Amino acid sequence: MKKIFLSLSAIACIAFFALCSSRGSTDNTVPTGEADTIPATNSIRLIFAGDVMGHGAQIKGAWYEGGDSCYNFAPNFQWVKDYISSADFAIANLEVTLAGEPYSGYPAFSSPVSLAAALQDAGFNILVTANNHILDRGAKGLDRTIDELNNLGIVHTGSFKDSVNWKKKYPLMIEKNGFRLALLNYTYSTNMTTATPPNIVNYIDTLRMAADLDRARELKADYIITCIHWGEEYQNKENESQRRIAGFLARNGCNLIVGSHPHVVQPIKKIAGHTADSVLVAWSLGNFVSNQRWRYSDGGIMLDVTLTKTDNNVSLDSYRYEPFWVRKYPEKNVQVYRLIPVNDYLANPGHYPAMNAKDEEMLMQFHKDTKSLLD
C-alpha cells in the first residue's frame, strides 16, 4: 500500500487536544472517578474491541474532518460512542504507533495523537499495545507512543519503555465495584525489529506467561484477562497454535482470553479451565476501524462481558457480541469513515444517512457472515 505523508498544524489543533486530554492521570492505574464503596449489585461490565488501524486513507480523511487545520478522528465513532462509554471499562488494541510525523499507514504505521484522543472520547479507557506494529518506528516510536498515551491519561499495557515501568505496572490491575482484575497482553511478534533493552514488548512465551499469571495471583487478582495478538491473517477460524496457547493460559489460571490480529472475526467458544469453570475465548474480534474494504475485514465485533462477584468468587455472568460495519464514503476528494452498529441500523435505518445500494449490500453481507460464524 502506498504511504501517505501529511503534516500537522499543531497550533490549530490546540483546542481539539485540550478537549480530548482533559481527563485522567499519567499513573497506569484505571481512574474511576468514584468512591470506594461497593454497590449492592456487585457486577462489572467490560467491552473489548479489536484492531485500531491507521491506514493512509484514514489519516487523510481525518485531516478533512478537522477542517484542514488538525486531524479529527472523533466522527469515526459518533454512532458507537454511547455504547462504548456505557461500560465500566472499554479496551481496544491500538495497532499503530503515535510516533509523530511523517504520518503513514501500512507498513510502518504512525498516526496522529488525535486518534488516541478520539478513542478516549468515544469511551475507551484502556488500550493494549503488544502487537506486531508497536515497533514500526523503532524504539523511539515505542517510547513516544507511551509518552503520548500517558500525556492523554489513557491507561495502557503490553509494551514498556524499560524494566522499571514493566515491574511497576504489569500486570495491569483494574479495580472497581469490589473487583480486582488483572489484564495481561502479548503478541506473537513485531514486524520491523525485535524489542531490545531497555524497551520491553510482551511476546508470547509460555514461561513468561506462567510467571505473569503467578504474579497476578500474588497481587490478589480475583479474575485474570489476557488480550493476545495471534493467529493467521484473514482466516475465519482459529488455528492449532491459537488453540494450544489458549489451552495453556486456561490451565494456568487465565479466566478470559480475547484475541486480535487476523483482521477478521473468528468464533467465540468456551474451553476447559484450571478448575471446573470453563474459560471464554474470543479467538479474534476482527478490525475495529481500518481501510480494509474486502469481505470479512470491513467490520468487526465488540465483546460485551458482565462479571459478577458473590462471596468473593468472580464468575462470568453473561456475554454477547455487538457487530458493527465500517462505512467509507466520499467527501469531496477524500474518503471519510463511520462505524455503523449493525443491529441498531437494521432496527432504525432512518437514524443513519442513507446508504447507496452497494454499501447496504456490503453491510448485509457482513451481518450474514458474522451471524453464520457466531450464532
Annotation keywords:
single chain; 375 residues; alpha/beta; 27% helix
Question: What would you note in describing this structure?
Answer:
By secondary structure, the protein is of the alpha/beta class. It is 27% helix and 28% strand. It is built from ten helices and 16 strands. The strands form three sheets. Strands 1, 2, 3, 4, 13, 14, 15 and 16 form an eight-stranded mixed beta sheet that branches. Strands 6-7-9-10-12-11 form a six-stranded mixed beta sheet, covered by helices on one side. The protein has a two-stranded antiparallel sheet with strand order 5-8. The longest helix is centred in the C-terminal third of the chain and has 18 residues, at 357-374. The protein is globular, with a radius of gyration of 20 Å. The protein starts with 13 loop residues before the first helix and ends with a helix.
Layout: helices, strands, pairs:
Layout: H1 14-20, E1 43-52, H2 56-65, H3 81-85, E2 89-94, H4 113-122, E3 126-128, H5 138-152, E4 155-157, E5 159-160, H6 163-169, E6 172-176, E7 179-187, E8 200-201, H7 206-218, E9 223-229, H8 240-251, E10 256-260, E11 268-272, E12 278-282, E13 287-289, E14 299-310, E15 313-331, E16 334-341, H9 342-347, H10 357-374
Parallel strand pairs: 1-2, 1-13, 2-3, 3-4, 7-9, 9-10, 10-12
Antiparallel strand pairs: 1-14, 5-8, 6-7, 11-12, 14-15, 15-16
